[in-house]
Design brief:
Largest sheet: 6 strands, parallel
Radius of gyration: 23 Å
Number of strands: 19
CATH topology of the largest domain: Rossmann fold
Strand content: 15-25%
Strand order of the largest sheet: 2-1-3-4-5-6
Shape: globular
CATH class of the largest domain: Alpha Beta
Distance between the termini: 50 Å
Number of domains: 4
Structural class: alpha/beta
Helix content: 25-40%
Oligomer: single chain
Length: about 450
């Protein structure tokens, strides 16, 4: 391992940490919070596992593929662990919460299994392993996550995720989230505002509010508090340009919240609202709590009030019992709704969910074919919709250099379009106007105009 005299811990031991995150935005924020805690204890973050004294994987359990990937990464560390037995290997997050002790049995070289509610104790848990040299399992289901945020640690100083609630009470039949993230718990508006004000003081221009079921924000708080109330309070904060929020459950997205969004100039004109299927039969088996007609009417209502609104969705293909007729109803919903983009997944049973008790009766080759069909359809829709923007000016919050071309800048519109453009100077964190002259299904390309 690489040693350096520049990083000495409080206990006079040099420590470095490698951290890799899988899954949703909530996991990414949990990673930021975890690394902030470790940095406050003197840890230095490294990008190479061979330079790390602590190797941590923040995991996802929503799909089997995500778990398989983590186990593959863990397996590849066996040789490193033999060469350097003092290296601590840890599994955090949803997979840790779900599998618990089973991870030690499958991967004996893992030292730490830390669930979704225990990462705030990460430095303490690592120190315990250092002191006693034994496996540590931390998956307390009743522990309340309360982390004082180190706002200075985040990938982009101008953007930040902010947790407003955790957990989910919906128990969709296919979903493991309520079992690994717990029941819904909301933070107070005062607490959230204090965090956002600290972020603004640190240079933040855009916040994304996070919750597994964010439309239920306010549950458990005193008074009839809603997501609309929170958005209204944050909209009045000076120094903040944009507010986003994810993820919206259609059954809990009220029309009052949509009306509030339409009145707030800082709230982005974009909704991520997973439909999951266009078939009422499948939606019922999924326990989604709405019909395809309800979903269509809700989107239509939102677009009438917010003319430039874009909507993203999620779909699961091959759910138990899905017939060709059911699938064609999903195709029809995608064609009619004209989503900006969609995340499309093949169904995989998750142990512990109600759907896992159903027969997984759709052959894998049919799942693959349906997955490809929806991906191709969405690509065509996205390209057709993006072509309508050619020749128009769009406002972009500049995020940084383009991933595909570091000589150009990249950012997003209020409708969540990715925009790439040339600029003679660094405009990161600024709102600028860009004229669009070319598009793909994923990206808009433009020419910089005068900033607003």
């Amino acid at each position: 391992m690489v040693n350096s005299p520049d990083f000495i811990y409080k206990d006079q031991q040099y420590k470095t940490v490698f951290f890799e995150t899988f899954g949703c935005q909530m996991n990414k924020l949990d990673a930021e919070l975890s690394l902030g805690l470790l940095q406050e204890e003197g840890y230095r973050i490294v990008d190479n596992v061979n330079e790390a004294d602590v190797i941590l994987f923040n995991t996802c359990s929503v799909r089997q593929h995500a778990e398989d990937k983590v186990y593959s990464h863990l397996g590849s560390l066996k040789t490193l662990k033999k060469r350097h037995p003092d290296v601590i290997v840890g599994v955090l997050g949803c997979m840790a919460q779900k599998d618990g002790e089973a991870i030690f049995k499958r991967m004996p070289h893992v030292d730490l299994v830390c669930g979704t509610r225990m990462f705030s104790r990460l430095p303490e848990l690592i120190l315990k392993i250092r002191s006693h040299g034994s496996h540590v399992l931390a998956i307390d289901e009743d522990h309340i996550v309360n982390v004082k945020r180190a706002v200075t640690y985040r990938p982009n100083i101008h953007q930040a995720f902010v947790t407003v609630m955790r957990g989910c009470d919906n128990f969709c039949s296919y979903c493991i989230v309520p079992y690994v993230r717990g029941r819904e718990v909301s933070r107070t508006i005062t607490d959230i505002k204090e965090e956002v004000q600290a972020l603004i003081a640190n240079g933040c221009k855009e916040i994304t509010l996070l919750g597994q079921n964010i439309n239920s924000y306010g549950k458990g708080l005193q008074g009839a508090i809603t997501l609309g109330d929170l958005l209204s309070e944050l909209n009045d904060l000076g120094g903040l340009d944009r507010i986003k929020f994810v993820t919206s459950h259609p059954a809990d997205m009220s029309r009052d919240i949509i009306r509030t969004i339409s009145r707030l100039e800082k709230v982005c004109e974009h909704l991520h609202m997973p439909a999951q299927s266009g078939s009422d039969q499948i939606l019922k088996r999924m326990r989604r709590g709405y019909t395809s007609t309800y979903y269509r009417e809700l989107i239509q209502f939102a677009k009438e009030l917010i003319p430039h609104l874009t909507v993203a969705s999620d779909f699961i293909v091959g759910f138990p019992g899905e017939t060709e007729k059911d699938f064609q109803e999903t195709v029809k919903l995608m064609e009619d709704m004209r989503f900006q983009n969609c995340f499309i997944f093949k169904y995989s049973p998750r142990t512990g969910t109600k759907a896992a008790e159903l027969e997984d009766d759709v052959p894998d080759e049919i799942k693959r074919a349906r997955n490809i069909r929806l991906l191709e359809l969405q690509k065509c829709i996205s390209l057709e919709e993006n072509k309508k923007i050619i020749g128009k000016n769009v406002q972009v919050l500049v995020e940084g250099a383009s991933k595909s071309d570091p000589n150009r800048l990249s950012g997003r519109t209020k409708q969540n379009h990715i925009v790439v453009f040339n600029s003679p100077r660094n405009l990161v964190g600024r709102l600028v106007n860009v004229m669009i002259y070319e598009v793909t299904d994923l990206t808009l390309y433009g020419e910089l105009k005068n900033s607003p």
